[in-house]
Structures
1.
Amino acid sequence: MIFQNPESDEIKTLLETVRHIAVVGLSPKANRPSHQVASALQGFGYQIIPIRPAVDEVLGEKAYASLRDVPGPIDLVDVFRAPDRIGPIIDDCIAMGIKAVWLQDGVINEAEALRARAAGMTVVMNRCTYRDYRQLNVVAR
């Protein structure tokens, strides 16, 4: 089976309905893509939940060591990790009943994307949340 991203209208709907985005691999360094994208998403009105061990906060939000440590709701998991590190993240998403996962530009792991989809998740791979928000004219939060 070959993975295909959802159609653009589905991606737009996803970005219009999620509120709480856990960003796995969110760097505290302002020059890193994960920080720049998360900062922009925060500016669009999303609640950003940093998932980054060994830091207390990023972008003014409390950071958590893992998805399982987050006490509140997660609508979307936005992943900035190496493709070979995705398996445990998908495991956590499945166990937690998370409905959507987004693997950012360059994060390509077809087997894990298909596994997440088979578990009932909406999966977007090798795309950028910020760029899609802008290009798809997502309704402001």
2.
Amino acid sequence: MDLARGNYYSVHFKLDEQQVWTAEVQVDELVFANLVVETSGDFTTEGSSIIIKDSGYVDLSLLLPYTTNITWYKDEKPIKGQNDITLRVTESGSFTVRAAPEECSNYLQYLGTAVVVRKL
């Protein structure tokens, strides 16, 4: 992928008979969809909650292009060592994630709504 896309812009104006140019800023052409999590596994749903029983589980997987700088959270706290695209959940909690596309690793996005999991 050619990441040299985009254009540089500055503003030129006259100030008290002086020509002034602002600093150039790059405006790129990359646009990303919202961060989305797909669910799979051995679970049922009840309202907006995911229900797991006994040895059940739910896999929460990020969809492309969010593949870098991944941090999963349980109950608003980062889950240590969980930085993969998929998180396997086997216990109750409120789960969310923050990630970025590889092309723009500083473009961190958060999942809009936490995934609520209840273990019965």
3.
Amino acid sequence: MNQRRKTVLISVSALVIIALFAGGLYLKSIGDYKAKVNALTFDEIDLSQAPDGVYEGQCDTGVVRARVQVTVRDHRLESIELLEHENGKGTPAEVILERMLQHQTTAVDTVSGATCSSKVLRKAVENALTAGLPG
């Protein structure tokens, strides 16, 4: 085998090893992200206990993160403003915010095709409301 073929073979082998390593890291990060999303728990927020105010909440699972500003007036969700929503390559689920306003609860169904993003947005709103609750 001549020197040029050896060099090409070593280079290709090195590239394959690097690609396999990078692919493994990517798959691990996706697994970690999905585990974080699956570990999210949700509590029913009692809006009758929520004082008037503007509250900020966030949720970050690595690939998907959201930051929201929630306005409560007369124990009702008056508005939910999306301040930040990074959703990787997934489908954004911002419509879930309108559902929360319409139904006056955070306990709404996820958006089909955007389950992880929906859960992150829901948790961000819940975190904002929890920050505003007494005690």
